[in-house]
DNA sequence: AAGAACTCCTGTTGGC
DNA sequence: TGCCAACAGGAGTTCT
């Protein structure tokens, strides 16, 4: 479900109820999600104050007073639901009608010292929560091979061209590879490629071809990746199926999709006149306009 | 050793 | 209406 913009939206929502608060109570309602929960998970959190809540790729990282870091990943369907102290009743939609109720997919419930209740719900259970020592975080198996943050200065045309230079795989697959760019997912890769007018079918190495260390194509693509992510974060992410920020707000970037989910519709580029096509790459849908994306 | 296929799990949707 | 297949925002593991 969530790609970088959605995870960042969740991070911002959780920050205000998590940081500086302590875990008063942790209810772990099953033994595992994608992975087993850590040993003595509730005990290791209870009483701990949260120092900060960060994000790396699609991971949320809560630094604890104990020195441990709580690593959380939402998988495809994971979400957090916040109920603040004094139960505000003005949240819309599903959030309202399920207030006070339990869902069979509510797997973890945090009760914080500020009175907030934070519920982790995940139907497909591809998400997970792990604990690791803060000083071992960088070397953690899940962290050590991650590529650059796409919104950082380090993500440049030179970097992208260098990392794609010898890749035989498709450009689509390369952009989804978290070892190259950390945090991109299927939607935003499709949208960035559309904005850059590049075909997802193009060989990744072709990004490095052309004049200079970074080709024209890499120079064109990198700013589009950044802008599509920035635009999506500004919109609070994309709401497909049921994504919403932790306090119930819906993201609205899905209204700005140019190609994702638009198979058979006319290309959004003025004057193009092409028709959006869906192909399958690596078992996942790619949407693009064969006419203007080359 | 890169790249593709398979896997986890549940829910929703579209076609008949 | 029901039934069934296809598909869904991820990514670690296993194969070739």
What are the salient characteristics of this protein?
single chain, 294 residues, alpha+beta, N-terminal domain of MutM-like DNA repair proteins, Helicase, Ruva Protein, domain 3, 2 domains, 4-stranded antiparallel beta sheet, globular, DNA-binding
Give a description of the structure.
The protein is α+β, with helices and mostly antiparallel strands and 294 residues long. It folds into 2 domains: 133 residues, MutM-like, N-terminal (N-terminal domain of MutM-like DNA repair proteins, Alpha-Beta Barrel); 101 residues, Helicase, Ruva Protein, domain 3. It has 7 helices and 10 strands. About 3% of the residues have low confidence. It binds a DNA duplex (16 and 16 nucleotides) through helix 6.
Strand and helix map with partners:
Elements: H1 4-18, E1 23-28, H2 41-45, E2 50-56, E3 59-64, E4 68-73, E5 78-83, H3 93-97, E6 106-112, E7 117-122, E8 128-133, H4 157-164, H5 171-176, H6 186-196, H7 216-234, E9 277-281, E10 284-288
Antiparallel strand pairs: 1-6, 2-3, 3-4, 4-8, 5-7, 6-7, 9-10
The structure holds a DNA duplex (16 and 16 nucleotides).
Average pLDDT rating: 92
CATH topology of the largest domain: N-terminal domain of MutM-like DNA repair proteins
Principal-axes shape call: globular
Structural class, from secondary structure content?
alpha+beta
Major sheet size, sense and barrel closure? 4 strands, antiparallel
Which runs of at least 5 residues are low in confidence (pLDDT < 50)? 89-97
H/E element order: HEHEEEEHEEEHHHHEE
Oligomer: single chain
Helix content bin:
10-25%
Rg for CA atoms: 20 Å
Specify the CATH architecture of the largest domain.
Answer: Alpha-Beta Barrel
Number of helices: 7
* Largest sheet, spatial ordering of strands: 1-6-7-5
- Give the termini distance in whole angstroms: 28 Å
* Binned strand content: 15-25%
In the CATH scheme, the class of the largest domain would be Alpha Beta
As for the number of domains, it is 2
The fourth-level CATH homologous superfamily of the largest domain is MutM-like, N-terminal
Please report the total strand number as a whole number: 10
